[in-house]
Every structure is written in structure tokens, then in C-alpha cells.
UniProtKB/TrEMBL annotation, chain A:
Keyword Transmembrane part of the UniProt annotation: yes
Classification via InterPro entries: MetI-like (IPR000515), MetI-like_sf (IPR035906), UgpAE/MalFG_permease (IPR050809)
Keywords: Cell membrane, Membrane, Transmembrane, Transmembrane helix, Transport
Transmembrane spans: 44-64, 113-135, 142-166, 221-246, 279-298, 330-349
Protein location: Cell membrane
A Pfam family that the UniProt record links to this protein: BPD_transp_1
PROSITE patterns: ABC_TM1 (PS50928)
Family: Belongs to the binding-protein-dependent transport system permease family.
Span of domain ABC transmembrane type-1: 109-348
Region annotated Disordered, chain positions: 1-41
Membrane topology field: Multi-pass membrane protein
The protein, known as: Sugar ABC transporter permease
From TrEMBL, chain B:
Organism per entry: Streptomyces dengpaensis
Name assigned to this protein: Carbohydrate ABC transporter permease
Domain of life: Bacteria
The keyword Iron is assigned to this record: no
Assigned keywords, A-Z: Cell membrane, Membrane, Transmembrane, Transmembrane helix, Transport
Length: 359, 277
């Protein structure tokens, strides 16, 4: 694994090896088709049709249905149907108005905001430190990197389950509590606005952080830590690839100028990793807002609704009680979420779209 | 020199400690899954090697996990196969051919990498019922097509990047020999882009295998995948840590083995096209 990481010339490059040049210019997925791709046999349309049919039936059409049906009142027992007027119970913008005035929505939104801030910070911070340390170590770097990257392949459902063991309130099962108990650190801790309960109720009642206008429920933090553990490997891989392309001369010359390790990290390594940092940051922001699995497995949004996030809300509204006619409102939440994500992710999307060839 | 040696020791020391801490959750699950539940309740770290047993796995297997495993493999392998076939065809067109609405189509495909699954989830249930894909084994076909659709952006983004790497001269030569586009794809592009296809297949496997939300929502209890089975086992009211831990290890294992065996392809794939969030 390291060999390919190290060889990879650029972190976010579309291709990892040997960019082929045609007539001296780089090929992109969209280039040089006009010149050389003269029609022969079926045209491009025929090749994309199978995928686009599946894509339209199972993505575009449901998206469209979500959009339209969010303006109707309906439930899954009596689903809204575009072609059946008897199912149309038009609600106007009521679903949106009700959502935006629903304290539960804002509560979930606040928790998602916490995810949005804390999760990318943790992921970028942890994986940056690890990647730089591993890069410095050189020897055994394969082993260390594998350890830190492995959790990345673990399903978030499984990650949630195994972290629930770590957090288990029984100090014979939960390592965290066993350690705290051995160190006699169990109790409650009040530092200014922070109220921390370390008696082992990590997923039930770990305390709050009082911001004056809002109590941050710390249970979210413990779920976020588990998620960051599962995701940090992505950052480690990305940063490692970036570090592999860092010219040793740059560091040597900084050393000659009398820079210490900290200064080298600050003024040479971190600036060199700006682009990978941006990528890891954006991807983890998207991840944080879409979160469902790990919260569902670890807390189901509880206790009460302390750890509900936006990703959980539409599911609970639409599926938890099939008899309730809340599917329209759930669709509205999903639409709002998607709008935020598209807005946040638009620059990222555009960067993935190949540039128009002007030839 | 001395200072250097000291920093190096500190570096390796903290990396070792960090690695050990990093492994704690997995080691916990593995230990609980291999020890009798009685020992787990008295501190699994006090267990001895002689107590190790596969009983928990057998019990979990007998309590319905076998069915979940089968469902997981059917869904995952099916989704990867369909995505590979229709994705490769489309990617060839995106990388090499011209057609109308190409950029719009590409952009729409890419949105699947950003938006939450929840945006298609709610209407999907009635829609699959309308299509007749909500009964028995047909549910597998339904969820495979949904996975294919929601993974389409990733598939095309990644595979078209690999296909664009194939040297134009080789395609030119094939054309001179009278190869059609399908022939060029079959005999030139696919063999040369094989590592890319493997990368995509692995990443798609891991992604589909690890899905919880679609399986939880779209499938009935007899057809749910292992991740959902694990979530069903995991209930705060049931003290069955032994079964849950065995289930979690079974969920983790296939993607992990793939990753360990085909590591290079996995990492390469990630850099072929950003990452699937």
C-alpha cells in the first residue's frame, strides 16, 4: 500500500499513475473526443443508456418525487402518487413551515452543526498528526499506516457497535470505564460551563456544555469520536500521498536555515498539504451532514432526542410510525438537507467536473 | 545526534502507543466474540487464551446471522456486477465519445456523491411496490438497482478517469483494424484499465456491503443484509454482547480482507476520483 501511496505524484489527481499525453496535451475524460471519436458503430448515447435508465428510475425520479411530494400531506400507508389525483392532499408550503417551526428540527440541526464543526476538525487534526508522524518514522511506516487506515473499511454500523462496547457502562466490559475506575477518576466534573459525568454513562448521560444560550449535549461528542475513528484513515491516506510528493530538498534547506522540527512542520509541511487538507475537510463536512448509520446504531438519537441529527429526522418521521401522515414533512427535511449539501458541496462538485475543452 | 535519537525514540514510542489505542475498539469486539459471555462479564481482559472459543459465532450463525450473510453477499456482489457492466459502458462514452447533454448528465451523476440517501428514500418504498420489486427475491433486484443508481456518480467518475488514461494511439490502431466502439472497449480499453476496474469493484464492494440505511428501509426482515442484522441484534435491552460482537466481526471481515489483500488497488481507487463520502 505504501508503495503506491508514495509513488502517487499528486494527491487529488484524477489519475494516480502515468498521465498519458496525446499530442503533448493531457487527456481528460472530456478531451479530444471530437477529433478522434468520429462516429463508428453506436454513438455515445447508446453506451450511456443502460446506466442512465437505471439512474433515472432509481435516483432522478425519486428525487423529483421527494421534491414534489414535500408539498403534499401523505403517509406511507397511503402514499402520494403523481398519477393518482385522489392521493393529492395539497399542503402548500405547510410541510416546510411546520418543519422550520419545529423545535425538534432545530434541535437536530444544532446537533448536526456540532457534527459539522467537530467532526472535520477531529478528522483533519488526528489524521494530519498521524500522517506526519508516520512520514517521519519511515521504518515500520507500512505497519503504522495500516493500523490507522484499517478502520476506514469498517462499516459505520459495526464501528458504532464496537465503540458501544468501549463505552459500555459496565466497567467489566467497557474499557473506558475500567480505566477510569482503576485511576479513581469516576465522578462528576464541573469546570465552568462544562458539566462532565464520568461514571460511565457515555451514551446515556455524559453531561453538557452550557454555552449560555444552548446546552451542548456531550453524548454527541462521544458518537463523533467513534465516527472520526472510523473516518480518519481517509485523511491519513490522503495526507500520506501529499507528503510523498514533498521534495526532501525543501526540508533540508529549511534545516540548513536553522529551522527546528516544529518550524519545519509549520512552514514547510502544512503549507504543502493545503490542497489535501481542503479535500479531507470538504469530504468530512459532507460526511458529517449525511450521518445516519452510526447514530442509529449507537443511540437511536437518544437519550430522548439528545443525539438526533438531521439525517435521522426524516427516517424517524417517515418510517418509525408507518401510520403517521408525516412522509411529506420528512421529504421536506430531506429536501432542505440536500439543498444545504448541494450549496456547500457545489464548488467541490464543480472541481470534479472536467473543464470544457476549447479546441 | 543525541537529540535526534531522543526525538526518534519519542516518535516511535508515541506511534506505538497510538497504534495500540487505535486498535482498542476492534480488539474489544474480537475478544468478547471469542470468550464465553461469563468471562466477558468479569472483564474480558482477564480472559485466558485457553478460554477462546468459536461458540459465540456458532450461536450467532444459528440465530439467523447465516441468512443475513447470504443476503449481504447477494446484494453486494449483484450491485458490484451491475455497476461494473453499465458503469463501464457509460464511462467509455464519457471518456471517449460525444453525445448530447454530456456535461449535464455528468453533473447529475456527480450529485449522488453529495446529497444524502434520504432524498430518495421516502418515495422509494411505494415506488418499488409499484414496480413489483417489493416481494421475495425481487427485493434484491430492487435494492441492487438502487445501489447502482446511487453509486453511479462514483462509478462513472472513477472509471472514466481510468479509461481516459488509455493511450489514444492504441485505440487509433484498433480503429484502423476495423474495430467498432464496442470492440475498442472490449479489446483495448477494458484490458488496459483492468487495475482501475478492480479498484472500483473493491471500493464499491466495501461501500455496498457497509450500507445500513437502504437495507434497513427497503427490505423485509427475511432479506436484510448483515449490517441491519447487526443493528437488530444490538439492543440495549438484550444483554447478548457475545452474539453482537460476533456479528460485528462478521460485518467487518469481508471488506477488511479485501482491503488487506488488494490494498494497492483500494488506495489507487481513492485517488482516481476523490472519495465517496
Amino acid at each position: 500500500m505504501t508503495t503506491s501511496v508514495k509513488r502517487s505524484p499528486h494527491v487529488s489527481g484524477r489519475r494516480s499513475s502515468g498521465d498519458h499525453r496525446v499530442g503533448g496535451r493531457k487527456r481528460t475524460p472530456f478531451s479530444s473526443t471530437r477529433k478522434s471519436g468520429k462516429k463508428r458503430g453506436p454513438s455515445g448515447g447508446a453506451f450511456v443508456t443502460p446506466l442512465m435508465v437505471i439512474f433515472s428510475l432509481f435516483y432522478l425520479w425519486p428525487v423529483l418525487q421527494s421534491l414534489i411530494s414535500s408539498f403534499f400531506t401523505w403517509g406511507l400507508l397511503r402514499p402520494w402518487d403523481l398519477f393518482d389525483r385522489s392521493t393529492w392532499q395539497f399542503a402548500g408550503v405547510d410541510n416546510y413551515r411546520r418543519t422550520l417551526s419545529d423545535p425538534e428540527f432545530w434541535h437536530a440541526g444544532a446537533n448536526s452543526l456540532l457534527w459539522l464543526v467537530l467532526f472535520p476538525l477531529l478528522v483533519v487534526g488526528i489524521s494530519l498528526v498521524m500522517a506526519v508522524a508516520i512520514w517521519h518514522a519511515r521504518r515500520w511506516s507500512v505497519l503504522f499506516r495500516t493500523v490507522f487506515v484499517l478502520p476506514m473499511t469498517i462499516s459505520l454500523a459495526a464501528a458504532g457497535v464496537i465503540w458501544s462496547f468501549v463505552y459500555n457502562s459496565d466497567s467489566h466490559i467497557g474499557v473506558l470505564n475500567a480505566v477510569l475506575k482503576a485511576l479513581h477518576l469516576q465522578g462528576t466534573l464541573d469546570i465552568g460551563p462544562l458539566h462532565l459525568n464520568t461514571t460511565g454513562q457515555w451514551l446515556a448521560d455524559p453531561g453538557t456544555l452550557n454555552l449560555g444560550f444552548y446546552d451542548v449535549r456531550l453524548v454527541n461528542v462521544f458518537v463523533i469520536i467513534a465516527a472520526a475513528w472510523a473516518f480518519a484513515g481517509y485523511g491519513v491516506i490522503t495526507f500520506s500521498a501529499g507528503l510523498a510528493s514533498l521534495p526532501q530538498e525543501l526540508i533540508d534547506s529549511a534545516r540548513v536555515d536553522g529551522s527546528g522540527t516544529v518550524q519545519v512542520v509549520r512552514h514547510v509541511i502544512v503549507p504543502h498539504l493545503r490542497k489535501p487538507m481542503r479535500i479531507v475537510f470538504v469530504v468530512s463536512v459532507i460526511f458529517a451532514l449525511r450521518t445516519f448509520d452510526i447514530v442509529y446504531v449507537m443511540t437511536q438519537g437518544g437519550p430522548n432526542t439528545d443525539s438526533t441529527v438531521l439525517g435521522l429526522l426524516p427516517w424517524q418521521q417517515a418510517f418509525a410510525f408507518l401510520t403517521s401522515p408525516q412522509a411529506g414533512q420528512a421529504s421536506a427535511v430531506a429536501v432542505l438537507m440536500s439543498a444545504v449539501l448541494i450549496a456547500l458541496g457545489f464548488p467541490y462538485l464543480k472541481s470534479m467536473l472536467p473543464r470544457k475543452e476549447s479546441r | 545526534m543525541r537529540r535526534n535519537r531522543l526525538t526518534l525514540t519519542a516518535l516511535y514510542g508515541s506511534l506505538t502507543v497510538g497504534s495500540l489505542i487505535w486498535m482498542v475498539p476492534v480488539v474489544t469486539a474480537l475478544a468478547i466474540s471469542l470468550l464465553p459471555i461469563g468471562q466477558t462479564r468479569e472483564g474480558w481482559w482477564n480472559g485466558s487464551l485457553s478460554q477462546l472459543t468459536l461458540d459465540n459465532y456458532r450461536d450467532a450463525w444459528d440465530q439467523g446471522v447465516s441468512q443475513y450473510v447470504v443476503a449481504s453477499f447477494v446484494i453486494t456482489l449483484g450491485s458490484v456486477a451491475v455497476s461494473l457492466v453499465v458503469g463501464a459502458l457509460a464511462s467509455y462514452a464519457f471518456a471517449r465519445l460525444e453525445f448530447r447533454f454530456k456535461r449535464v448528465a455528468f453533473f447529475l451523476l456527480l450529485t449522488t456523491m453529495i446529497v444524502p440517501v434520504q432524498i430518495i428514500l421516502i418515495p422509494l418504498l411505494p415506488w418499488l411496490r409499484t414496480l413489483g420489486l417489493d416481494q421475495g427475491g425481487l427485493q434484491y433486484l430492487g435494492i441492487i438497482l438502487v445501489h447502482t443508481a446511487f453509486g453511479a456518480g462514483w462509478a462513472v467518475f472513477m472509471m472514466s478517469a481510468f479509461f481516459a488514461d488509455v493511450p489514444e494511439e492504441l485505440l487509433e490502431a484498433a480503429r484502423l483494424d476495423g474495430a467498432s466502439h464496442l470492440g475498442q472497449l472490449r479489446y483495448v480499453v477494458l484490458p488496459l484499465a483492468l487495475p482501475g476496474l478492480v479498484s472500483f469493484a473493491i471500493i464499491d464492494f466495501v461501500f455496498v456491503w457497509n450500507d445500513l440505511l437502504l437495507g434497513l428501509t427497503l427490505l423485509d426482515r427475511d432479506h436484510q443484509p448483515l449490517t441491519v442484522g447487526l443493528a437488530n441484534l444490538q439492543s440495549p435491552h438484550l444483554a447478548q454482547e457475545n452474539l453482537v460482537s460476533a456479528g460485528s466481526i462478521l460485518v467487518i471481515l469481508p471488506p477488511l480482507l479485501l482491503f488487506v489483500a488488494l490494498n494497492r488497488f483500494y488506495v489507487r481507487g481513492l485517488f482516481a476520483g476523490g472519495v465517496k463520502g
